[in-house]
Amino acid sequence: MVRSIIYTLAAIALCVGVFIGTQIFIRNQFVHFNSALQTLYDKIEDETATREDAYAVRTMWTDKKSKLQIFIPHNDISYIDYWLSEACALIYNNEYDLALGKIEVLLEITKNLPDAYDVKLENIF
Question: What would the 3-class secondary structure string for 47-83 be?
Answer without folding.
Answer: CCCCHHHHHHHHHHHHHHHHHHCCCCCHHHHHHHHHH
